[in-house]
Each structure stands twice: as C-alpha cells, then as structure tokens.
Amino acid sequence: MVTSNHSEVQLPAVSQAVAPPALLRKVMAASFVGNFVEWYDYAVYSYLAATIGDVFFPKSDRTTQLLAAFAVFAVSFVIRPLGGLVWGHYGDKIGRRTALSLSILIMSGATFCMALIPGYAQVGLWGAVILLVVRLVQGFSAAGEYAGASAFLAEYAPEGKRGLYVSTVPASTAAGLLFGSLLVALLSALISTDQMQSWGWRLPFLLAAPLGLIGRYIRLKLEDTPKFRELELRHDAKNTPLKDLFTNHRRAILIAFGVTLLNAVGFYLVLTYMPTYLSEELNVSTTESFIATSVTLFIYIFLIFIMGTLSDRFGRKRVLIAAGVGFALLTVPLFYALGAVGIVGMVAIEIVLAALLTLNDGTLASFLSEIFPTRVRYSGFAFSFNSANALFGGTAPFVATLLIKLTGSKIAPAWYLVAAAIVAVATMAFAKETAKDPLPDA
Known about the structure:
By secondary structure, the chain is an all-alpha fold. The protein contains 23 helices and no strands. The protein has helices at about 15, 20-45, 50-55, 60-80, 80-95, 95-115, 120-125, 125-140, 145-155, 160-165, 170-190, 195-200, 205, 210-220, 225-235, 240-250, 250-280, 285-315, 315-340, 345-370, 375-395, 395-405, 410-430.
C-alpha cells in the first residue's frame, strides 16, 4: 500500500519470500538458453576462424588471414559498450524480462544470417563487409545478454545462494562453447577441408534461429523479478538509470571493469582461442585440439557451480583474488608445458587453466550483480562488463596472434594473461565483500 509520500512503499509480499523451486527452475532455464545461444555463436566463429579467413579474405599467408578473421571478431565487440548502455537502460527502466526477450531475438536472427553471407569468391571483399555488419548487430544484441541474465537470476535467487544460482549464467556460456566445439569437431572429422570451406562452416550458424526462438518463448512465460517490480512501485516514469549510474556509481564501474578484465582475457584465450593456438602454433591436429578443448569445457561446466558455491561460503573477494594470483603464478609455466606434452598432457594443462578461470568466472556474475543497486544493476553490470570485453576480450585472439608474430615467442599470450591477472588482483584490493549482504536497493 502506497503512503502519501511517493517514495515510501510497503513492499509486495513476493519480494520477501523465497521463490518456489518450480519458478527458480524456469528462471534458470530462461537465463541458461539465451546465454547459451550467444556464446555458441562466439565459439563457432572463433573455432572456425581459420576457415572464415579462407572464405572471406584474399589468399595470403596463414597468419594474415587469421588476423583478418580475428579482427572482424574483435570489431564486433567495439559496439558492446554502447549495446550495454542501451540494453542496461532499457532493462533498468522498462524491465529485465522485456530486454532479454528482445535481445535474444536479435542475436539469434543475426547469427542465422551469418550462414547466408556470400564469400570472397562470389562478391569479393563485400562479403567481409557484410560479415562485419552482421557481427556488429550480434555484438550490440549480445551486450545485454550476460548482464541481464545474471541480474535476473540474482534478483530471484534466495539469500546465501546467489553465487550458486547466478553461476548458471557462466555455466551456460561454457555449455554454448562446448556445443560449438563438439559440432565443429564433428564437422571437421566428417567432411573434407574443401567441403568445410564451401558449405560446412555455414551449418552451425543455421542452428541459432530455432534455439533463439525457444529461449524467447521461455522468457516470455516468466514475470519480471521481484526486485524490479518493487522498483516500479518506488519510482515514476522519470527514472533515469544512466544518469544515476555515471553520477553516483563511478567507483563501482571502475572496480567492475578491473576485475572483468581478467575474465575477458582469460575466457577468450583459454576457451575460444586455445584450439586455434594448438593447431596453428603447436601443430596439433585440428581434431585433437578440439577434443582437448571439448573435454576441458565439459569439466569447466561442473567446476563453475562448485566455484559459485565456494564464493557463497568464503566470499566473492577471496575467490576472485585467488583466481588472479593463480593466473599470475601459473600461466607462463603451463604455456611452456603445452609445447612439450602429448594430447593427454594438453588436456590436463587446459583443465588447470580452466579451473583457475572458473574461480573468476563462477564468482564474477554474482559479484557484479551485488555491487550495483537495483535501480542501475543492469546498466552498471552491462556497461562495465561489455567495456572490458570490448577492449580486452574480443581483441584477445587478435592480440595473442599479433604478439606471437611480433615477438616470435609462442609464450607471448601467457604474459598478456599474467598482466590481466595482476590488474584484477589490484582492483579487488579496493572492493568490499558482498556475498553475505542482501542485494542493495539504494
């Protein structure tokens, strides 16, 4: 019941009660599917980078074609901070569910269109231009997905278990990568290189349309979060989340950006660039490199939930700092070892790197949801997360390939990851613990 003071509201009962298990399962499914589609697309593009370079760019040396393909991959991230602002503002002002339902539709449609683009042999460089435009649309629509799904789950999750429930989002990311890796590995094993370049590479992108429609259907069947419904009662239509975000929450933005930097570099180097690194730099067969990455991703999914639970018990700050310290100390030795072991050793090393990444990845989404209040949670999360990914995530495969070319050292990407880890640890030194506190509202 609203009092005479507009800002004073008796909160609806739904906000004070734990959501029933059936509803929580639906919320988890809705968050899982959309994020799955987004990173399935990014996985397929990254795993097929060498083929896409052959299809859309003039014949040249292998490294130059790879750099061109990864440059298009990176450029699609440039628009993500803008997309994060748009989707975040939309989600904080009109609703998380509405924003997520629209973003998944645009994302899956753009991914489907990837399969229809003519290559260099048909239209010359116009094919690369169209590819770039489609990637920009994908980047814009994807900018609202991870942050929105995380905020959606965090605002439904019971107190004391946010880390576990919100870890569904990074787990769905890994699941999308795993599905993309398995599909590309299967295609590589079943068809020839010529067939892959002619039509095989298009098949994975065609799957995005039905997956996206399923995700949208599930989301439309849910109500918006209790936290957002409370917000609607507290604030009128003049609510301006972006003004509030950049006026009152600049410190939180900087902390979120700094800790996300490690996630951005680590995620794209360890989970999407690694098959290309193994095959192009270490001369591992394409099939073996995808098998190694697929096994790693399978284990990664389970580790994510474990790390989310650990962050509920020991705190977000401790777990995130542990991730940074682990990467700083172990990355270079592990990359050196990659070049001296067989396939079993490679799998073991990838699993160790993945375990370090899950310390960060399984904790980050809940941490970013907790450092911003409800009024700007979507906006703050989306802008900081997408800005870090635009500058350091999408560019990671390109930078790694370029560093190897410039230095002549196959270990150069490892030092890049170490630098990101040091920045993340330094950032978390200024952060407060958030795991035991309720989600902030003011």
